[in-house]
Amino acid sequence: VQLQASGGGLVQAGGSLRLSCAASGSISAFSIGPMYWYRQAPGKQREFLASIDFVGRTDYADSLKGRFTISRDNAKFTLYLQMSSLEPEDTALFYCGADVRPRGGMNYDRYWGQGTLVTVSS
Predict the structure, then answer these.
(1) Which of 5, 16, 49, 100 could hold 113 in an S-S bridge, CB 3.0 to 4.6 Å?
(2) DSSP state for residue 103 in the 8-state scheme
(3) CA angle, 110 then 32 then 73, to 5°
(4) CA 70, CA 111: separation in Å to the nearest integer?
(5) Residue closest to 94 by CA, chosen among 29, 31, 17
(6) Closest CA to 98 of 41, 45, 53, 48
(7) Cα(85)–Cα(88) distance, integer angstroms
(8) Span 76-99, mean pLDDT?
(9) What do you get for the CA distance between the two ends of the chain, in Å?
C-alpha cells in the first residue's frame, strides 16, 4: 500500500487549502483502519494534527482551534484535511498516515505518505 499526499502549495494568511491523501496498491488485499494527518515545521518535531477511524470518528490536536477538518472517503481510499484561517505558523510539511492490515490479519502497520508542503505567507 502506498499513500500519496497532495494539495499543498502557497497560500496567503487567512486562506484555505484542502489536502488529499490517496491510498493505492493492492488495496483489495488490505483493510485500512485509522488515518492521520501530521505536520513538521522547519526545525520542529513532527506534530499530530488529526485522526479519523473507519466509521468517521475524529480526534484533533487542541492547538488547531477548530480550523482544520479531517474526513475520509472509504470508497475512494482517500483522506482529506480541510484547512481554513491559515496562519504563517502553519507552514510545514504535511504528512498523512494510515494503519493498514492484511485482510484476515490481526496486526496493523502504520504507513506514511511522502508529505506535501504548505507555505502560508503573511
Answers:
(1) 5
(2) T
(3) 125
(4) 18
(5) 17
(6) 53
(7) 10
(8) 97
(9) 37
Distance CA 60, CA 75 (A): 23
**Quick check: 51 and 58 in contact, CB under 8 A?**
yes
Distance CA 49, CA 93 (A): 12
pLDDT, tens digit, for every residue of 102-116?
988 889 999 999 999
Which residue's entry shows cell 482517500?
Answer: 78
Q: Give 15-60 pLDDT, tens digit per residue.
A: 999 999 999 998 888 999 999 999 999 999 999 999 999 999 999 9
Amino acid letter at 1? V
Rounded to the nearest 5°, which phi and psi values hold at 27?
-60, -40
